[in-house]
Amino acid sequence: MFTPSSIITRCYPVPGSNRSIRWNRPLFPPYGSYTSIAPSPSRRDRLRVNDSDFKIRLGQLHEDIVAQGERVLEQATKAVDAYFDHDPELAREAASMEAEVDRVDVEIERRSIPLLAMGQTDEYAIRSVLTIVKINNEYERIGDNADSIAETTLDPRRQGSNLPDTFRVMANSILGMLRDANRALADRDATLARRVLAFDDTVTEFTREILRHTQDRVAAGDLAVDGAFRVLAVTKSMERIADHCTNICEQVIYLETGKIVRHDPDGWTEPQNPDVSS
């Protein structure tokens, strides 16, 4: 029952007459006639959902970047084996993988950028996204160099040559660096990443040895100049793959420690905290 204070009286004129209609109606609807409306989610609930979505999407991206690492390792291995075994069919397989590497590269970058707009303030979460973007670029460059090695194998001008044993040892070592860099990323292992960095000077020595060997063969008339250029081009591609491996390991160390690895003339040093005073 409604009390007088809860009832409103209104008069409505009847068109064409001086009469009016008086209507009494409750100020509020009768009890029980309200429709139940769920309260809107609180800011805390929205942040909780957003954080959960971020972690799921970041986890998927991590799996995809690890898979990309395995893909370029397979491509590089095929390219190197094809070069030393003079196997054009295997070289074509390596070259054919380039399109898929490029496609995944673009896809990972497209999916990474929106994560930065999800409002994460946790430093590790932000570093995780930045690391994926940077390492994704390194893998794409490794794929480019593997493709260059494969194309050299398919070059009809390539001559059979007695390559130094150092050349194959260097190639196998660099493939090992890539394998360990992939594992360091997959396991987020900064210790393994540091071990990969320590091998960089050895690659430099390998490169110098191959350069000296090639120069000696050209001087002795055992190798034509254009053949020497092709040998050095493959050597350079392998050296660049090693450089990209060290870049990947730098990012793994940054991800796990928040510290930046610096490269100075004396070699790799322990990670140093970034200078934020300037």
Termini separation comes to: 75 Å
Number of helices: 8
Mean pLDDT: 82
Using the coordinates above, name the CATH class: Mainly Alpha
Helix content: 55-70%
CATH architecture verdict: Up-down Bundle
Question: Overview of this structure, please?
Answer:
This protein is mainly α. It has a single domain, classed as Phosphate transport system protein phou homolog 2, domain 2 (Methane Monooxygenase Hydroxylase, Chain G, domain 1, Up-down Bundle), CATH 1.20.58. Helix content is 68%, strand content 6%. It has helices at 43-85, 88-96, 98-116, 123-154, 165-187, 190-198, 200-220, 225-257; strands spanning 7-13, 20-26, 263-264, 267-268. A two-stranded antiparallel sheet has the order 1-2. The longest helix has 43 residues, at 43-85. The termini are far apart. Residues 31-38 have low confidence and may be disordered.
Fold topology:
Layout: E1 7-13, E2 20-26, H1 43-85, H2 88-96, H3 98-116, H4 123-154, H5 165-187, H6 190-198, H7 200-220, H8 225-257, E3 263-264, E4 267-268
Antiparallel strand pairs: 1-2, 3-4
Helix pairs in contact: 1-2, 1-3, 1-4, 1-5, 2-4, 3-4, 4-8, 5-6, 5-7, 5-8, 6-8, 7-8
